[in-house]
Amino acid sequence: MTDTTDSGPGGYAAARLRLLQEGSRSGPPRRSALADLTDQWLAALLTGGVESAGIGRGAALVAVGGYGRGELSPRSDLDVLLLHDGTADRSALAALADHIWYPVWDMGLALDHSVRTPDEARGTAAEDLKVQLGLLDARHIAGDAALTADLRTAVLADWRAQAPRRLPELHALCQERGERHGELQFLLEPDLKEARGGLRDATALRAIAASWLADAPREGLDEARGRLLDARDALHLSTGRATERLALQEQDQVAGALGLLDADALLRQIYESARIISYASDVTWREVERVLRARSATRPRLRALLGGRAGRGGGSGPDAGERSPLAEGVVEQDGEVVLARTARPDRDPVLPLRAAAAAAQAGLPLSLHAVRRLSAAARPLPVPWPPEAREQLITLLGAGESTVGVWEALEAEGLITRLLPDWERVRCRPQRNPVHRWTVDRHLVETAVRASALSRRVGRPDLLLVAALLHDIGKGWPGDHSVAGETIARDVAARIGFDRADVAVLATLVRHHLLLVETATRRDLDDPATVRSVAEAVGGATTLELLHALTEADALATGPAAWSAWRGSLVADLVKRVSAVLAGEPADDWSTPQRTTAEQERLAVEAWRTGGPVLALHARSEALAPGDAGGPEWAPDEGTTGPEPIGVELLIAVPDQPGVLPIAAGVLALHRLTVRAADLRAVDLPKELDTAGAADGVLLLSWRVAAEYGSLPQAARLRNDLLRALDGSLDIVARLAEREAAYRKYPRRHGVHAPPPRVTVAPGSSQLATVIEVRAQDAPGLLHRIGRALEATGVAVRSAHVSTLGANAVDAFYVTDASGAPLKPLHATEIAQQVEQTLTGSPPGQ
């Protein structure tokens, strides 16, 4: 037998290493074997310590927490209690503890240890909920087994007696932890233990079951917990650290260790497991609250009965058997939606949707028993669906926030994929774009929730809600998800029972759900070709109205970086122009002077008169869109106090000359200003000035910027640096290169490698210019580098439209040749390739 007390090559350390390196054992068998191996080692340490300390009976070594459950991952802490009966003296106990603890520390293992009598352990548990939870999983390792058994019995009795008080405390602890760490089923870099739906919640469900007050749904729960433990094991082995956070850079390696195809397959498996645990937690905590509520209502009635004061009906609490009808075959009972006694799911295929719609409209949860009965007994809907089924689906989607919980209940029992088979491909599918806060399926439901709040803005709210549910349904298929989604949407809409005209509208909405926001933020709205192309794609005023609402709902459901008042104003402006074209009005001609505000004209005139740049800064919050009145001019000085605006609108007017865009962008980068949006165009001067020799005109640059760090710079400093950059006395390229070199001296967090920049030509986007579109990872000085790259090719930038979504920059540049004409197709492709090569090369100045 191997001497496990020896930490040398033949002892515990070597045996542990061999076990962790075995390819044949993983998952529960390896965790169990690691716990057994550790038990043997600690038991030998206890035996040797008892002998050397001179302690006879009355001492035991007890595993608690995860170790007590036998769930030892490669880098897990050892949670150990040295239990004694109080007869040994303190010095002997201290010697025994040192004999056990020091070899563990020498091994480099994390140890959570304590030395207590049974009464002390119970007393500590009564004061500390986390200690009590750990003791619920107490398991005997070695020593006096009767001592451990007595402690387990007493701890369980205490827990059950104190459950009405401790369970609400545990629930609050779980909720606070979930708010702090987020929901595991939606996080790109989840904490497998602490996030909602993680291992901590699975442990809490075990504690609830031990209280005998309620029990969690068992189906799939152990498997879900096991998959999270397997992922944690692989994470520990791949990183060599005791980490619970599945970082992006570790996911491919962890996926490979688990035999999964890639990181997306790993995340999807983790999300599915977390969803099972989260749903089980919701159902179980709801049952706990119901039981505690019933107990608190029963006691006054019982006291009244014993006192002889109860009238007919007994007390003031609600009758637990009382049922209130909500819909045909659906009633409310005790705060949940259940099936009526006369309901026949086997004869009523619409009942699942009717029950779900009634629950969502009432703001109540569907009971677990009702959902399971519907899943087991309900017949499939005929195809196409009967009108009532379609109406119930629309009613469910239009219920607002309460739709989410009801939808999750249906999904947990497989009813959603039975109703909509195409849902399976988007279920639990991760979205790698950090702008998105949800998985694909949850994003679709959240979009429907947002769309329900906009339903009064459209004439066909039913089409809006269904389009919201289906707009990203193509993300489960290869290729452009909008193109794939159009085909799927046609099939689903026909299955649901819409007529041909409505099917065509829904298909158009899904195909073009990104059209408005992409066009508004990346194209020149003063170019008539832009407006006409949108009008041709949309086809009619009703579809445009629906698409406008869908665009807003989609962006709001995506995340805070996807929508703002500024983007909303651009989309609204585009919709107004397209509406005019659809109504038969001619599109604005780009050759006519563009609309210029009084302030813009004032800045342009001043720039022409002074021959230098003129700046104006306005405080802008997300609630204000560019051009709105009410933004006070902002020029901070040394005495400025109070909160600064989170972003500012910066207007720069400068006499037209080569290189204005990269120079201005470089100055902003030097001042650590993050460009959230930008627009460049020429401004026509008043006729009296134009005839005076101002033929070159003035360029107007509209920026929306925020400080990357610290405070916003003073307007005077910006103007001075811009003057120096324009006259060549400020070397922007060298300054940015110095900063980049300084950054490289400091270690950075190792994150996921960003995909390379992509530069393309957008054919047909304009009749008067060529549109070059740049998509890249946002970084300080990026716009400066793009501007320099375009300038180096010899093209003229007629206008620019810059937008930033999270960490992604999507910029469009309208360029012409020296004569002012659009580029030839071959030349445009060469320009795009040159810019892309520049951006994929070295940092600025390198």
From TrEMBL:
Keywords linked to the UniProt accession: Hydrolase, Magnesium, Multifunctional enzyme, Nucleotidyltransferase, Repeat, Transferase
Reaction equations catalysed: [protein-PII]-L-tyrosine + UTP = [protein-PII]-uridylyl-L-tyrosine + diphosphate; [protein-PII]-uridylyl-L-tyrosine + H2O = [protein-PII]-L-tyrosine + UMP + H(+)
Residue ranges with Gly residues bias: 308-318
GO molecular function: [protein-PII] uridylyltransferase activity; phosphoric diester hydrolase activity
Boundaries of every HD domain copy: 440-547
Cofactor(s), names only, from the UniProt record: Mg(2+)
Statement: the UniProt record of this protein carries the keyword NADP: no
Residue ranges constituting the ACT domain according to the UniProt record: 771-846
One Pfam family, short name: GlnD_UR_UTase
Record region (Uridylyltransferase): 1-325
Region (Disordered): 306-326
Means of activity regulation: Uridylyltransferase (UTase) activity is inhibited by glutamine, while glutamine activates uridylyl-removing (UR) activity.
The enzyme's E.C. designation: 2.7.7.59, 3.1.4.-
GO BP terms, alphabetized: regulation of nitrogen utilization
UniProt xrefs under NCBIfam families: PRK03381.1, UTase_glnD
Function statement: Modifies, by uridylylation and deuridylylation, the PII regulatory proteins (GlnB and homologs), in response to the nitrogen status of the cell that GlnD senses through the glutamine level. Under low glutamine levels, catalyzes the conversion of the PII proteins and UTP to PII-UMP and PPi, while under higher glutamine levels, GlnD hydrolyzes PII-UMP to PII and UMP (deuridylylation). Thus, controls uridylylation state and activity of the PII proteins, and plays an important role in the regulation of nitrogen metabolism.
Similarity field: Belongs to the GlnD family.
Free-text comment about domains: Has four distinct domains: an N-terminal nucleotidyltransferase (NT) domain responsible for UTase activity, a central HD domain that encodes UR activity, and two C-terminal ACT domains that seem to have a role in glutamine sensing.
Name used for this protein in its record: Bifunctional uridylyltransferase/uridylyl-removing enzyme
Higher taxonomy: Bacteria, Bacillati, Actinomycetota, Actinomycetes, Kitasatosporales
